[in-house]
C-alpha cells in the first residue's frame, strides 16, 4: 500500500512540475525531469527510515518503463476489462498481396477460414451511410448500380459458424468494429521493398506477374498503412512466398484465438 501511495504521489508531483513549464509533447519537460531527480537525491540524503523507503520507491519508478500520455506524464496502471470471445474472431489481412493470400487461406483451409459474405444493396448513398452511422454496416463499396455492404450481422453469423471470417474492409473501419464489440485479428504483411513483392510467384494464386509499377504502389501503400494504423496490428508477418505467409498467419490466428482478450475499460483496444 505504501509503494502504491508513493508511486501515485510521484506522478502527481511530476504533473505539477510539467504544468508550469508551458511545454507539451510526449516527453517530460526538462524542468520536470530535473525536479524529479532533485527529489530523488533529496530522499537519498535523508538519514531517516522514511527517506530511505521513499528513495527506494522512486528508484523503482523509471520514466522510461511507464507509458506516456499526451501531456508527457507517466501512468503506472490502466483499468481494463476482460472480453469473452465465444465465437471465432474475424481476421483482417493488410499489406501487399493480401488478396491472393486470402484466396489461399480459404482454399487450403476451407473449414477454418471463409470470406465475409457481402450483401448487395440497391439503395441511395444516404441510406447506406445512415446504416454505417447506426452501427448496422461496417463498410461498403460502390458498384455499378448497387453497393456491396459488409454488415455486422454477416460478420457475427460467420463467427458463430466456427469459421474465421476474412474481412474485406478499409483499415479505418476497424474502429467501427470495436464500437460494436467485434475485435478482429489484424495481420500486417511487411515486405522489405517493392522488388521483393515483384519477385513473388505462384502458379495457382498469383498467375499474373506483378508489374514493377504495381509492386511499387503496393509497397508505398503498405508503408502508409503501417505508419497510420500500426496501433491496431495484432501481428506482423515478414513478406515471402504465399505459402510461407499463410502458415505464419494461421499460427498468429491460432495463438490469438486462444488468448484471453483484454480491452481498456470503457473503450476499444
Count of runs of 4 or more consecutive helical residues: 10
Helix-strand topology string: HHHEEHEEHEEHEHEHHEHE
Distance between the termini: 29 Å
Rg, rounded, reads 25 Å
The unreliable regions are: 1-33, 53-74
Class by SSE composition: alpha/beta
Give the beta-strand count.
10
Shape: globular
Q: Give the proportion of residues in helices.
A: 40-55%
Output the strand order for the largest sheet. 2-8-9
Approximate strand percentage: 15-25%
Mean pLDDT: 79
Largest sheet at a glance?
A: 3 strands, parallel
Question: Which key features would you list for this structure?
Answer:
three-stranded parallel sheet; disordered N terminus; 16% strand; 269 residues; globular; three-stranded antiparallel sheet; alpha/beta
Brief synopsis:
The chain is α/β, with parallel strands linked by helices and 269 residues long.
Question: What does this 3D model show about the protein?
Answer:
This protein has helices at 2-19, 30-45, 49-60, 98-108, 125-133, 152-160, 174-179, 194-198, 212-229, 242-258; strands at 80-83, 91-94, 113-115, 119-121, 137-143, 146-151, 164-166, 185-190, 235-238, 261-264. The two termini are 29 Å apart. It contains 10 helices and 10 strands. The strands form 4 sheets. The protein has a 3-stranded parallel β-sheet with strand order 2-8-9. A 3-stranded antiparallel β-sheet has the order 4-6-5. Strands 1-10 form a two-stranded antiparallel sheet. The longest helix has 18 residues, at 2-19. Residues 1-33 and 53-74 have low confidence and may be disordered. Helix content is 45%, strand content 16%. The chain is globular, with a radius of gyration of 25 Å. With 269 residues, the protein is α/β, with parallel strands linked by helices.
Amino acid at each position: 500500500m505504501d509503494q502504491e501511495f508513493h508511486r501515485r504521489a510521484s506522478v502527481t508531483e511530476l504533473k505539477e512540475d510539467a504544468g508550469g513549464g508551458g511545454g507539451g509533447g510526449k516527453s517530460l519537460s526538462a524542468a520536470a525531469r530535473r525536479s524529479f531527480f532533485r527529489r530523488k537525491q533529496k530522499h537519498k540524503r535523508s538519514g531517516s527510515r522514511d527517506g530511505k523507503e521513499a528513495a527506494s520507491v522512486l528508484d523503482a519508478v523509471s520514466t522510461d518503463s511507464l507509458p506516456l500520455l499526451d501531456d508527457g506524464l507517466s501512468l503506472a496502471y490502466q483499468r481494463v476489462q476482460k472480453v469473452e470471445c465465444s465465437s471465432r474472431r474475424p481476421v483482417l489481412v493488410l499489406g501487399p498481396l493480401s488478396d491472393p493470400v486470402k484466396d489461399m487461406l480459404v482454399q487450403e483451409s476451407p473449414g477454418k477460414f471463409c470470406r465475409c459474405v457481402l450483401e448487395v444493396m440497391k439503395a441511395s448513398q444516404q441510406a447506406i451511410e445512415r446504416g454505417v452511422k447506426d452501427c448496422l454496416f461496417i463498410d461498403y463499396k460502390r458498384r455499378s448500380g448497387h453497393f456491396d455492404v459488409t454488415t455486422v450481422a454477416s460478420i457475427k453469423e460467420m463467427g458463430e459458424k466456427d469459421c474465421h471470417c476474412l474481412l474485406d474492409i478499409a483499415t479505418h473501419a476497424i474502429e467501427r468494429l470495436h464500437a460494436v464489440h467485434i475485435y478482429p485479428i489484424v495481420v500486417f504483411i511487411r515486405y522489405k521493398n517493392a522488388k521483393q513483392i515483384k519477385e513473388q510467384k505462384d502458379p495457382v494464386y498469383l498467375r499474373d506477374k506483378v508489374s514493377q509499377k504495381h509492386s511499387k504502389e503496393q509497397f508505398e501503400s503498405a508503408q502508409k498503412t503501417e505508419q497510420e494504423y500500426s496501433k491496431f496490428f495484432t501481428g506482423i508477418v515478414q513478406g515471402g512466398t504465399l505459402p510461407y505467409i499463410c502458415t505464419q498467419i494461421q499460427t498468429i490466428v491460432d495463438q490469438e484465438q486462444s488468448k484471453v482478450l483484454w480491452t481498456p475499460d470503457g473503450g476499444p483496444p
